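Reviewer 2 asked us to include a model.

Predict the structure of this chain.
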Amino acid sequence: MVRSLTQLVAVRFAVAAVASAALALAAASPAAAGLPKPAAKTIVPGKSIGGLGFGGSQASVEKAWGPYPGGTCEQICTYGAPHGGAAGEVRLESADSVHYKAFEVLIRTGIESKGAKDVAGCDTPLVGWKTSKGIHLCSKVGELKKAYPGLRPDGASAYVLKGPGQAATIFSLTEDKLVFLISIVARFQEGQPGE
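Predicted model (structure tokens):
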């Protein structure tokens, strides 16, 4: 009896230790630690997200959003969860494979399955990034349409706000009709919604 009680206490201690470790890891998740940390959390349609706009160099990405958690920022630089979670991302292009310039900037929530639907995971600090009209990640489609009457549908789950010039802002929606991705692109082409 004593032996089994000792074993039971040891098992409970091990379970408690594992649970504590899991909570500690969740609290210090790399996704939260690696998210962009801009001075201003503003979205300017067709121009910038979190102070990062088009034509910026690799150095300007880190100046606007903080040190890149993946080392050197080249081509596609993801701040936050790399596998579909909440993230900020910048895509760079180069004519000479040496000098990279930003041509797309985006922020997104994670996607969660609830029943038969994929829904936006709105528990992210990136929800606090807003346009001057109050649109942010997890805004409802009705709020989006009211704020920007010039929106055009692009496929079944995205809306595009064109301008200035060739630039555009793309708002992509989940099945529950919430914005889960906001992207600005320097040169918009039809049928180019976010991920």
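The chain has a mean pLDDT of 80. Residues 104 and 185 are 4 Å apart (CA to CA). We have added this to the supplementary material.
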